[in-house]
Amino acid sequence: MSDLVHDLSGRARDMNAGLAIFDKSDTLLATNDKQKTIYPFIDYSRSVTFRDIVWECVRHKKFSSDTIYSDPDRWIGYAENLRRFNRFWQSFTLHSDGRVIQITYERLEDTDGWWYQIRRDVTSNVQNSVRGGFDSLISLNGGGVLPPSGQPSFVVRLLDALPYPAALLTARCQVIDGNQSFASILSRGDGLSMVGGRLCIPNAPTEQAELAKRAAGFFRRRTRTPITLRVSRLDQPSPYFATLSEPPAQSVGNGGPMSGILLLTLVDPDILPAVSARAVADLLQITGSEAEIALALCSGRSVDEIAEDRGVERRTVYNQVSSILGKTGLRNQAGIVRQVTMICWHFGSRV
């Protein structure tokens, strides 16, 4: 197995990434110097397990998510199940110092249950991508973690890869396909329905007209940045946030790019994974107070409602929104909502 360890170590070195290789009992077999600089408080001279590493990270307040600290055993169990049911996985972890670490995990074939993790700092990449329209289906520089031959050839439907309701539409709002969560919303008639195969907002004609206009003109715009709209719901005060965007340049499991097709995603603010204001502030490079405003917008609150909740003048909130737009380069409140939503799905607490 020395050749395998040497090969993985070389790949990690080329990417300036930390490497940890474990056996089937989760005992650390090998690591590199970069891993030790990311987690310098771990004593690698003794026998160390994956659980030991996580507990040391908890003890040193390394993570930004409060959920991990409230129930570390449950979080570790979640990570163990992830390895049990997936051969390859990639995610991002936000550290308490504001750094974003990309974690790649893979179980190794032709070994007795060995697996490895590669960790690398992608903070600047994430911050730039968040400001540029962070696409939740595309891992940041993820293709460079392993050469294609080293990755499993999963075939995943584009829509099933999303954690929230999603559908593919034509420019005339004709529904081509949708995932199970999207179908569930349609079946409830909760603000959205289908008439003659087209997506409609029957109880809000103004919103319906805006959806039709935006979909029809999406590909005629000079820049095809995502568009976020509010969709009123029948029984809930908070709206859905509907985002129209292009599907990823290479569709997953489809074999070719999609042209002239829109990706519609729906987010219910009431069930977004929780993320701290500090995390939003770190990723968007804004102040803590501005991050609280951004999170309030993402929860469906209007500027007037936010001003009332905070006991300040309406103009004060508008000034803070303007400051967020100026610092991030986003165009409007919908852009703020879209970016904070992506942050919640990537870095929010799910367990």
TrEMBL record:
Coiled-coil stretches: none
Entry keyword Nucleotidyltransferase: no
SUPFAM superfamilies: C-terminal effector domain of the bipartite response regulators
GO terms, biological process: regulation of DNA-templated transcription
Domain HTH luxR-type: 283-340
Keywords for the protein's UniProt record, in alphabetical order: Plasmid
Keyword presence, Zinc: no
GO MF: DNA binding
The organism's place on the tree of life at top rank: Bacteria
Name of the protein in question: HTH luxR-type domain-containing protein
Source organism: Azospirillum baldaniorum
